[in-house]
Amino acid sequence: MAVTLRKAGFDDWALLYDMQIKAFEALLDKYHDYEYSPGAEKPERVRARLLEPGSDYYFICLDGEPIGGLRIFNYGDRCKIKRIYILPEHQRQGYGQMAIRLAEAKYPAARTWQVDTVLQEDGLCRFYERLGYVKTGRIDNIMDGMDIVYYAK
After folding, report:
1. Pairing of strands 112-118, 78-86
2. What are the structural domains of the chain?
3. pLDDT tens sequence across 26-54
């Protein structure tokens, strides 16, 4: 099974949005974070991000079929993974790690990579740590029981 990245265009917003809502549903149900959670986001935000300069959206594809999305913000010598998601039925199979490695290879000028995630989600933290990301020391409290931790590579 081959994992590839396919650049998304503006006309792809509805599929990206639908997959994002499905992928983040469990975290939204757990934390009830209706302000910041990608699972509670409005479709207009996805459409706007597709037009944002420096923002690259990709489909994560398995044998050519979209199974998730990845948004990279390219600052030139630094890139930030703004969002990555895999549909629930394809999670925990290594596809996200493959997608990040493919993305990192697409931006050879980037000397630093950044990402953030929910501190209380041990699996998500381990996911990035296995890819070589290290905690920066910055942690932002979002609500009781939910903090955002920042990583760099």
Report:
1. parallel
2. 3-152 (3.40.630.30)
3. 999 999 999 889 999 999 999 999 999 99
